[in-house]
Amino acid sequence: MPHTAAPTVSWSVAPDRRPGTPLVVALHGRGADEASFAQLAPRLPAEASVAFVRAPLAEGGGYAWFANRGIGRPLPDSVAATADWLFDWLDAEAAGHASVSLLGFSGGMAMAGGLLLARPERFAAAVLLSGTLPWDAGLPEERGRLTGVPVFWGRDAADQVIPADLVARTGAWLREASGAHLEERLYPGLGHGIAVPELTDASAFLRRAWADGA
């Protein structure tokens, strides 16, 4: 079913500071919310406007981006409905910004990946953390789909949450078929989480992507 209410968003900066800045759309993990994810704001580029968006489906005391068939396996109709909802919001929101980039963690990585696969031309860069792309969800995944898009993929190889087959499939496609300008980083000991060194690397990556695209 389509989502009708406008997204709930926690912003890193006040409205008068947003025009002309890079917009980063930050998508939290499954069962979390925008308020908890917004705690990352001090570790992200201060020159950006970061929109921490709440997922539309209530789940486990928090929110989820889509219904699924298991971890990292979205139902096609559900991920498509959320993608349409987010693109409708972006159609209005993005106009005042210099560019739009994505940042997604875990289930939010799958959703960010869905947006990226659906309309790669909309995004200046993507930061994908501790997750998988949304495979077998009816999204385009042909060779070269992300040609020229800067993509940062950060994770711990020992992450026990995301199924190993999905991580392997994501890695193979990003490296060999996507066409993306991929920066892949491993963070031993991270587990299924986010660490300060990872955010430092991701922020530097975003700044380079914005400078190269200017």
UniProtKB/TrEMBL annotation:
Domain of life: Bacteria
Start and end residues of each Phospholipase/carboxylesterase/thioesterase domain: 13-207
Gene Ontology MF terms: hydrolase activity
Database matches in SUPFAM superfamilies: alpha/beta-Hydrolases
Keywords annotated in UniProt: Hydrolase
Entry similarity comment: Belongs to the AB hydrolase superfamily. AB hydrolase 2 family.
Protein name: Phospholipase/carboxylesterase
Originating organism: Streptomyces griseoflavus Tu4000
